[in-house]
Amino acid sequence: MDVAGQQEDCLLPLQGFLSPLQNPRGSQGPGVWGRFPLASGRSWRAGAGLCARSAAAEVGGDLGVPRVTGRALSALPRSRTSHRRPASPAQPRRSHGQVQGSSAPVDVLGCSAGLFPGRISGWLSKPLKETATSVGPHQNVRGELLSEMKAENIKSFLRSFTALPHLAGTEQNLLLAKKIQTQWKEFGLDSADLVHYDVLLSYPNMTNANYISVMDEHGIEIFKTSYLEPPPEGYENVTNIVPPYNAFSPQGVPEGELVYVNYARTEDFFKLEREMNISCTGKIVIARYGKIFRGNKVKNAMLAGAIGIILYSDPADYSAPGVQPYPKGWNLPGTTAQRGNVLNLNGAGDPLTPGYPAKEYTFRLDVEDGVGIPQIPVHPIGYNDAEVLLRYLGGAAPPDASWKGSLDVDYNIGPGFTGHGSFRKVKMHVHNINKITRIYDVIGTIRGSVEPDRYVILGGHRDAWVFGGIDPTSGAAGLQEVVQSFGKLMSRGWRPRRTIIFASWDAEEFGLLGSTEWAEENVKTLQERGVAYINADSSIEGNYTLRVDCTPLLFQLVYKLTKEISSPDDGFESKSLYESWLEKDPSPENKTLPRISKLGSGSDFEAYFQRLGIASGRARYTKNRKTDTYSSYPMYHTIYETFELVEKFYDPTFSKQLAVAQLRGALVYELADSQIIPFNVQDYAKALQNYATSIYNLAKKHDQELRDHGVSFDALFSAVRNFSEAASDFHRRLAGVDLNNPTAVRIVNDQLMLLERAFIDPLGLPGRPFYRHIIFAPSSHNKYAGESFPGIFDAMFDIENKADPRSAWAEVKKQISIATFTIQAAAGTLKELL
Amino acid sequence: MDVAGQQEDCLLPLQGFLSPLQNPRGSQGPGVWGRFPLASGRSWRAGAGLCARSAAAEVGGDLGVPRVTGRALSALPRSRTSHRRPASPAQPRRSHGQVQGSSAPVDVLGCSAGLFPGRISGWLSKPLKETATSVGPHQNVRGELLSEMKAENIKSFLRSFTALPHLAGTEQNLLLAKKIQTQWKEFGLDSADLVHYDVLLSYPNMTNANYISVMDEHGIEIFKTSYLEPPPEGYENVTNIVPPYNAFSPQGVPEGELVYVNYARTEDFFKLEREMNISCTGKIVIARYGKIFRGNKVKNAMLAGAIGIILYSDPADYSAPGVQPYPKGWNLPGTTAQRGNVLNLNGAGDPLTPGYPAKEYTFRLDVEDGVGIPQIPVHPIGYNDAEVLLRYLGGAAPPDASWKGSLDVDYNIGPGFTGHGSFRKVKMHVHNINKITRIYDVIGTIRGSVEPDRYVILGGHRDAWVFGGIDPTSGAAGLQEVVQSFGKLMSRGWRPRRTIIFASWDAEEFGLLGSTEWAEENVKTLQERGVAYINADSSIEGNYTLRVDCTPLLFQLVYKLTKEISSPDDGFESKSLYESWLEKDPSPENKTLPRISKLGSGSDFEAYFQRLGIASGRARYTKNRKTDTYSSYPMYHTIYETFELVEKFYDPTFSKQLAVAQLRGALVYELADSQIIPFNVQDYAKALQNYATSIYNLAKKHDQELRDHGVSFDALFSAVRNFSEAASDFHRRLAGVDLNNPTAVRIVNDQLMLLERAFIDPLGLPGRPFYRHIIFAPSSHNKYAGESFPGIFDAMFDIENKADPRSAWAEVKKQISIATFTIQAAAGTLKELL
Predict the structure, then answer these.
(1) Contact present, B187 and B486 (Cβ < 8 Å)
(2) Does the model's pTM come out above 0.90?
(3) CB distance B834–A772 less than 8 Å?
(4) A585 catalytic, yes or no?
(5) End-to-end CA distance of chain B
(6) Which of A483, A473, A422 lies closest to A183 in space, CA to CA?
(7) Residues of A in contact with B450 (CB under 8 A)
(8) pLDDT of B408-445, one tens digit each?
(9) Can you point out the beta strands (E) in A473-558?
């Protein structure tokens, strides 16, 4: 909306506003912008921006591979040519010292466990338990795997992988892919391949920078936000740093009055529209980052009629008390802004090829029809700039303290500025460019010895907004160490029962694209053969305790394995990870167990779990949920996510990253090598009972309407009971299965593998065809959070305000019916016959 | 449209029109209607209509079970309690004489093969070939199964099952279900259960009969069509006969001018609208039955704007030259009309519960929102009545001879009557009632000894419009004999490797409801475990030669088995079924093979094949496609489909029904008991190459547009080549698989089982979410016919007339891309690893 020139009031503009091209507190203007060398062609690849030195460092010479102690890499036999025939299933597994293909004597006790010799315990001292889920010298192999993994190696990988930016679609990220591929081959994987897709990415326009301005009544820019963050010390000469932007924002220069919308959550807009009677139609809204996924904020703003949305990080959400801003501490400086995509893909992957892999032959939608691309401009700014915009907002006062951040402003809502500035408008300048760009996943495999057609996947992304010190490289470095350690086991002749697939995904930051496209390309085999997916994104988002989100099938395995891994926490020196985790974050429902949360989205497990129904889990170290009130870690998606941030402030000994990598690696090991897949079905039954109770309790708030509209949850509870009985029967049968009968073993394993699949409905959730899991979905109001019974929840959401109560309650009934059917059908898959 | 009274012309009405309540040629009026005792309650169940005698005959006493020669039924051991442990996979299968659980010496030579001792050959004399697909004494068991099956038994079942009407939703059909269940238990199945669903059915209103009238200009009915068919001899006292009607026609009394639309095919309406400039908007159309599924006719009429549609059977389509009408011959009498549903479900099953089983807890759509229910009244009439309506049609002459039937009328198009009758209108009176009604499937099982979790299904429907002499009972009787014969094998201790499921479906005539609901209820296990589905609808629609429609995976098995079954044809006394079939109906593409057609729909395999991607096939005896120009068999869906029709005219020796039952049974046997599933993947590759060539040839007619819009089939052909290579590699690997390694066997069997599944796209075809097979679908213009690459075909259909050529060709490109992806992905499933 262009209202410049309507009235004249050029005296005393908003105090504190600065002249164009001058920024507060030292952030850098467009003079620096020229250092961001966007290639003029299809992407930023090649060109002057990539110096010969860095290219050499990436593909050869010092590959950044940590030194292997004790064994030379060159001595590894090439496993591709040494596939063992599966052992006769009736015979016990070979004991470790008898493994074929390894001429060296085997170090059963893991003499190279050096780094934490007193802490990697449990698996060494515990007696072998022979159960249906663990036979033979299985635990020794797991112990060996864990002891192979070294914090020092993770540190070395992290340093190597964060030396340069690795934005998706750039030459530098391709070179890192090749480096990882090369290392995986050296580690001894059976294969390591690059797989490419041509997906829609979004970059800032290199000749026309994005910014937000304040326009006076003559149409003169009297304030401009900064383009770039000051680079951290030691990185001053690094090129190819993308400035803060919101990927997939459309181009646009909307101008209008500003409205402050708090976090731009659904409830924030309800508050504005329903209680405060403030309309955002035709306005530019400013929202603080935090609480929910930024794409949901943008969608909410669109639904509210806004013509643009500015996102900023308030210190209240991105600073901890008593902590200095980077580089002196780990708090957010005011000059930096959080990057991030603002798509509402709902699991579609590449916006132009929903449902299908973005290959050369694939039909592409026009960008206007692309999935989830917002229709209003979006741009992120730091809190220094935000403070300028917010300071003179007029209109209503904030409704309560929850609307106030910690800047020195009133947090008035608007619309528009107060007093003398009331004719001034905010103008957004967004010139991002969408480009179909080639991305590269690295896919490595260890072929299973007995069931090569059963896959356990460990995947995490490689692409980063800039250096990716935490996101994703704390995870990618750990993944590299997991792969190296599996390679060492293989060098001694070991090979897992099932196939292990390692994945270094590309373009996660642009909407989980690399992982989703690969899932789409391999959908048929993954549906048929996928046992589990373990995610390996950032391994730390804090350093307080463990955080796990996973399918209920994995609860027991996570408990068991965390008991076998040493706690990295101060004060828990001789205790297990499980013990520190339980003490620091007990489950709210059952204090005798540590908390495990539902899977939402926001990382690469999404396609595998929410679309395909492959049992999935993720684990990382996190903050203290009780005392740390900031949203995520402050430096999230900024230029300051460096190696030094991790090394100085988060995990100086790398022991937390090691513990997380050990847990991820041990999960993969157990899932791939246990004769019986270590899933617990009864935990799913309990979880279903809890979720059903929750949703029923929510519904009971509308007791009268339930009766008026004949809405009953009885069938749902009945199905849950049936499932529970089927689960008990199944475990009874499992306990008696003849482990010497390979077909009988495969039959129960098929049931275990396919149980998660049984919760998938090909019709998808209402309006979200690629979220197909009926029990879990990313919340419709916050993609990051997991919602149980999402179909029912969404049907009931805000039901008292729906225009047609009859059809609204009919939808609730329909969703209860679908959930009932799905659970009933899943119970059916646990039966032996029909 | 009511135009009565506009003008006066009451002299000399249409010559030959009869007064109300009087019908030509002896068909019966409403006086007879009262004999059709519709229960006043929820359905026709119970009540006076079902006499005590018939109830007794159905549930006890003389169960109609054919006498078993040689062995007493009571001597059958109960297999439920005698499950064998699977034999050690490393040992050769037991030879036949050593089978456990049978104390009687085994009749290897099948001494009870009596009926055709000289003709059941092949499998007795052929040497055992040891291949990957047949090991051990497998062929002997198959031979024994075939020799157990007796024409005399099929005859006896047919007589028993056709004694009374068995319309879906009636008490009589429930009693038949119970009778079949009882017999299956007696035959020795491990289980036989009734499974119910509450689906939407449609019946005539018992107090307000349907008919068509001609109204004069004063609004007086001067002609009415008949309500009922004269019952066949011997059936005069049978009650519960539903009069001819079109199920799911909405209620309505539209009145308007009549237009003759030939077969109401897409091309017929194109001719009328585009070439003859005749609009059907606001008219009642009359179409002859034949060529395409009647539901497509109704849909086409709706799209053309018609307000009602009358369907009739023209003698040109339902009579053979020189044949007498029933009862003297098998031609259609003029007093009878073809019943049938007119839904366009596109595979949804119950119209109110698309995608989910119609159980007690299931959410139901309002009938107005029900899937596929037409919006205009439809009613069928016989050709005596049709001749009256057609005789005085005015307007344009028929465009060519293909629009002329063989009634003694001009086949003018209309609209409206000619000459003095031009003010007269046709009025339809349709009062059908939709009712949610309980239906019953019978599900029987033989538990597999080695892989109980692998299912081979043999299913056919039980419900009939009236007596169902041909449709479906010629098939249901054969199914009963197959079950009995498997039971005999079981009584000797045999048990198949995989589980066999027998199904007697209900409500097929109302839209394949019983089979689709069961598929919906068991979708998860069927997806995971379904090896194959063999259909057992009518086994004869003619008596000339065999007709087979099946997945390419089954071609080789069908060739092989038909070589092992004796031909029932005159003149082929010592030859195989394969030989007579090949001679009478060679493949148009390859004269050295018999013709096998693509699967379309119109019977219960639909949900299994088109929605779930379970390899499927059907077989029946058919007419001579070269010389027999009539559509289907003349008495189709009339009251004259009796036991006598079959016995006197179609298959007096029941040898054709035996041959069909033997083929169906042998298919099931081979699929259930072969160590390696007997599918041939290379035939799928060849079929894909043929279909791709066909669709490309069709596209080439638009050569210029292909170039203008950048449409290429290269990727599709490339994917087909990749599939062919993968198929060859797979068969090479299959030939070398270690048959003593149960896991290795299961791995390749999983690939075979799941290959058809790989062609399923959960997103479905455009506008047809439950037709999910990308390679095959029922034609959008004729549900009965199979279309290959249906997505591409439909996108290209009539493309020269599409409003927006750019978007129309974009859709073609999209569909090529989807087909390419699907084939590529299916090829991926044939690979060992990724």
Answers:
(1) yes
(2) no
(3) no
(4) no
(5) 64
(6) A483
(7) 743
(8) 999 999 999 998 889 999 999 999 999 999 999 999 99
(9) 498-505, 530-535, 545-550
